[in-house]
Amino acid sequence: MEKCITFEANIQAPCVMSDFFTDIAQLSFKTRLEELKDYAFASYNIQNEQMFNLLNEAQACFYGRKYNFRSIFSYQDFRERLPILQNSDIQPYLRKMTAGKPNILWPGVCKHFVEVPQSGGQKSGNSKYYLPVSDRMLSENFFQGINDCYALYLRDYPESRLFSAFSVWLGTDSKEENLGNITSVLRKNMPFIMSLLTFPNELPEESADEQLTEKIFKKCQQDKISNFHGTPSSFRSFLDEASAFFDKKSIREICPSAEVLFHRGIPLSAQMEQGVEGLNYQASYCSPEGFFGIQERPGEAALLLMIDISIFYEFIPVDVALEPENAIPLEEVVLGKDYRMIITTCSGLWRYCSGGPAVRFVSEKPYKFILCNN
To answer: What is the pTM of this model?
Structure first.
């Protein structure tokens, strides 16, 4: 599990091709931006489609046969038949999956498993808890979510040179323990086009962290960094090291071409409103369980719930028992009320109770939420 800051650099485009790549990206994102507008008036249909797509895909798996996915014809069938699961409940399935057995919770062999902290009453001795991350989850959820971040950012900053230079992935720190090692999984499994635009081409060994950090500083000198991915605290740690290296204080002095920090993790409202000094800022809620929300507008304190990237959502109020009959679909949530999030994903998490913070919806057209400390 990542508990120290690591530096992983990704180049989005060579400087000499800056305008070309950014312009192409803006054009390619137009269709997706139109799809995101559907969130405001078609959320029921979108989520219903997500549920049936997931059920149909997994009906031949062990879990799909156990609960007879083939005979589920409505949300009510789904709600009445499948139990609510917590992390301890899925570990017997994961033991089979980590042994290489296919078609347990999701079709095929799962190649990626992320260690996650045990939550609340689930803590038990020194046992380790894991979550599966399927290849499909990587492409349809995590990387789609990252691309949606880019699309929304370029919509709000049309003069951006986002793909004119390098992107530096700052990793995680101990305050973002819930991220586990999902950053490393994403970094090692980038889509081909993104991998072609990556520096360095391979992840460094831990012993090479200092050399890699120095290489990043040299890119700063060459004005070849446009954006950072990580948490505000990991960015501040990077900035402290860079300030000592250059004997300069601000990111604008150190790297004038840097324009934005993409915050991945658990962004609370105060941080989202505040942003980071010297850079544009965009937050997203991302954990080993999935990619869930994006700060749609600069300075906005709420996150747009991503409802069409292979996750079906249900919710249970924090003040009621964690029982299947207490779960409600997205269209029944009440604004201003705190809920535990129940997710069904293409990693094979079926009605899984998220170990993340509670959510409170503040808008329903489209659905936007804030993260709560409870």
So the answer is: 0.89
